[in-house]
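We emphasize that the prediction below concerns an isolated chain of 330 residues; any contacts that depend on oligomerization or on bound cofactors are therefore not represented. The input was used exactly as deposited, without trimming of termini.
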Amino acid sequence: MSLGTRYNGQGGASPEDTGAVIAVAERVGRAIETVIEGKPDVVRIALTVLIAEGHLLIEDIPGVGKTMLAKALGRSVDCSVQRVQFTPDLLPSDITGVSVYHQERNEFEFNPGPVFANIVLGDEINRASPKTQSALLECMEELQVSVDGATRPLERPFMVVATQNPADMEGTYPLPEAQRDRFMARVSVGYPTPQAELDMIDTHSSRSPLDDLAPVAEAADVRAMVEHVRGIHVAPGIRRYVVDLVTATRTSSALRFGASPRATLHMVRAARAYAALEGRRYVVPDDVQALAVPVLAHRLLPTPEARVERRTPEDVVSDIVARLPIPGPQ
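Result of the prediction step, given as a token string:
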């Protein structure tokens, strides 16, 4: 029996609102799956991050559909989308924008950069220098951009969907810890199944399925889903469970850098969104367990000993989840 059957919801979100969230999310999910076949778990995490007001990092080897997933998510929602191709010569002003002096008017005019959009697709983010990567820090955390002494707010919803190749590949820079910590979750697309790859030959060989992808939701729908998710109930026992999980990463002998308090907040927000997508008005331990690796692993730094033993942060988080006591019914 699932742990979710033992919990009763106490949240303020109504069943009607929950049904509306599911309906919109299912439309967006089906639209993405017309492009990314055979990866329902990856699509579910992407939707979770979207309605939890987070940012998504997609890490995998070249050619498995990282950029395709990011584009499909952006095209499924009728909102402003901008793409940035990160390269070694990219400058911070290429992302945030720059003020240009007009001599005839004797004044500066601000030309906004691609970050002034609802969904920003950062392709191969770790091919730019850390200085350029840091241009996203303020907007990802505070939903604003400061340029030339002026602070400009960003329109909601705002989501950064970044792709990156593994750090040991040629021509990549490791993402700074502060940058990784601002991403709510990290997913890997992985290789498709043989059947999905056969289907891909039919659907991708003649034309891109993105050409036929039309928006199935609006920015207002996403904002409404975000407001609904904030009302999902998180019982005291679940909150303590999340805190114990994050604290365990800070005391693990296999990690030299545990998860931050921001990770705790991201975990709770993501669990609320995950519960809403499951049709519930309350969070259960199943939600936290399903999100533990995507939300926490990319923030953690293993010790040299763990690297020698080939223990990844994903392995450490899975071990912590396996041994951490599950809270009783609330």
